[in-house]
Design goal:
Blueprint lengths: L10 E5 L2 H13 L3 E6 L7 H8 L3 E4 L13 E4 L8 H8 L4 E2 L1 H8 L4 E5 L4 H14 L3 E6 L5 H6 L5 E6 L2 H4 L9 E4 L7 H4 L2 H9 L10 E5 L3 H6 L6 E6 L7 E5 L2 E4 L2 E5 L8 H16 L4 H8 L10 E6 L2 E5 L6 H8 L7 E5 L12 H4 L4 E4 L4 H10 L4 E3 L3 H11 L5 E4 L12 H17 L3
Parallel strand pairs: 1-2, 1-4, 2-3, 4-5, 6-8, 6-9, 7-8, 9-10, 10-11, 11-12, 16-20, 17-18, 17-20, 18-19
Antiparallel strand pairs: 12-13, 13-14, 15-16
Pathway: Cell wall biogenesis; peptidoglycan biosynthesis
Subcellular location: Cytoplasm
Organism: Pseudolactococcus hodotermopsidis
Length: 454
């Protein structure tokens, strides 16, 4: 960790705890800042605040009193999830208090080069692939950022001979100033988080900030399958490296005749990728770009891309029982995510498990994607809607009370060499606290099936 003087004796307000706020408070304190933490959760229900107080850091909990900002703070480190319309943030802006997110702090203290990954979909898979590939090549890579490991905490413990592989959300990127990754990736840009950003334009602007401090010495990896990202290539100072599944890219990764190439060098066959789906082919191309730019051997790339079983709950391969294959894609909380998952399978031998929270939408746009499915198991509040769609298309459909029973039912109905895919197309909150809890129940159900004797 760089022993920077930027924060010495500066009054800093950390707004919002969670993992990133807790990490930021500790790092700032070590750097000599006079830190105050403000979190809405009451003190007696707030173990993180209790720990920080015990370490000598001032905490204000149970609400966000505007009067706190009268204490002449010189900086606010804001939890990314707190919107800029929050009264505390609005008041800070009025007082001209600079506002950053914790990833900016991580950059300022990091001795390690950073590979930053953002995008609407595929961030976590791409981030994990890159880290696994670099580590397989004996380059020390550490996961950080939006993937669950606070960036400032990881940066504080990393050295110059390591690389931070940092997943970055649009929320985090709105709070950067000097942040500059050595390699940046934008996997894709779709409509998302409009309730936070207010418009698609604002959302895309936030994503594009990942490259704003980059120079020609840095590399910006863009998805050339998307016209809007291809057009952006001429609006950056970074050296652009593209990837595409549909055409040759001179300076980047592409697919031709069933083979994957990087700058005209053959890397591997598409058919050898362990993860199914066109979206995962894009993720693999993005990971190959970052890996080759980092000097990684083809052997390490192929080793990971042919064996990677997926990030948990994101098209995660769970193995076989009686030659029936199971995949857990509980992270598919909307129709688009399920459409992408379905693109990687043969519908004629596929059983789709779907359903969840009813947000009032229909599912007609799924019709083309689920045509000719072997069968469907539906559950949750949207089960009736999904059942009606399946019946309209002539797809065998069965009801289940939850995903555990859905796994059992699919196994009972499936034939040898069929695939069972949990890809709900719905949020989980009607029956489960999180998509992780839903996916864990499915994983446990499949594990029990595998333990049973044939």
């Amino acid at each position: 960790m760089k022993k920077i003087k930027n924060f010495e004796n500066k009054k800093v307000l950390v707004l919002g705890l969670a993992k990133s706020g807790e990490s930021a408070a500790r790092v700032l304190s070590r750097l000599g800042a006079i830190v105050t933490v403000n979190d809405g959760k009451p003190f007696d229900e707030n173990p993180a605040a209790q720990d920080l107080l015990a370490e000598g850091i001032k905490v204000v909990t149970g609400g966000h009193p505007l009067a706190l900002l009268d204490e002449a703070f010189e900086l606010m480190v804001k939890n990314p999830g707190i919107p800029y319309e929050n009264p505390m943030v609005v008041r800070a802006i009025e007082k001209k208090i600079p506002i950053i997110t914790e990833v900016e702090l991580a950059y300022l203290i990091s001795e390690s080069p950073i590979i930053g990954i953002t995008g609407s979909n595929g961030k976590t898979t791409t981030t994990t692939l890159i880290a696994d590939i670099l580590n397989r090549d004996n380059q020390s890579a550490k996961l950080s950022g939006n993937i669950g490991f606070p960036a400032s905490d990881v940066a504080s413990k990393s050295s110059a001979d390591e690389t931070l592989i940092m997943e970055l959300s649009s929320f985090q990127l709105m709070g950067i100033d000097q942040f500059r990754p050595k390699i940046a990736i934008i996997t894709n840009v779709f409509s998302a988080h409009l309730d936070y950003h207010g418009s698609q334009e604002n959302y895309e602007t936030a994503k594009w900030r990942i490259q704003e401090n980059m120079t020609t010495a840095d590399f910006l990896v863009l998805n050339f399958n998307q016209a809007k990202l291809r057009e952006k290539a001429s609006h950056t100072n970074a050296t652009v490296v593209g990837f595409s599944t549909t055409e040759k890219v001179d300076n980047g990764a592409y697919v031709m005749n069933g083979q994957i190439f990087f700058r005209d060098e053959k890397i591997m066959a598409v058919a050898d990728l362990s993860l199914p789906g066109s979206h995962n082919l894009e993720n693999a191309l993005a990971a190959i770009c970052a890996s080759k730019l980092s000097g990684v051997s083809n052997q390490a790339i192929v080793s990971i891309l042919t064996t990677f079983s997926g990030v948990k709950h994101r098209l995660q391969y769970l193995g076989k029982k009686s030659n029936i294959i199971f995949y857990n894609d509980s992270k598919a909380t909307n129709i688009l995510a399920t459409q992408k998952a379905l693109s990687g399978f043969d519908n004629s031998s596929l059983w789709l498990l779907a359903g969840g929270l009813d947000r009032g939408n229909g599912f007609d746009e799924l019709a083309t994607d689920i045509a000719n499915l072997k069968g469907m198991i539906v559950f949750g509040e949207t089960a009736p809607k999904l059942r009606d769609l399946a019946e309209t298309l002539g797809i065998p459909v069965f009801d289940s009370e939850n995903v555990a029973r859905a796994a059992e039912l699919a196994f009972e109905k499936a034939d040898e060499n069929d695939t069972v895919l949990l890809s709900p197309a719905n949020a989980s909150w009607d029956q489960y606290k999180t998509f992780e809890q839903r996916g864990d129940m499915f994983i446990q159900a499949v594990a029990k099936l595998k333990e049973k004797k044939n």
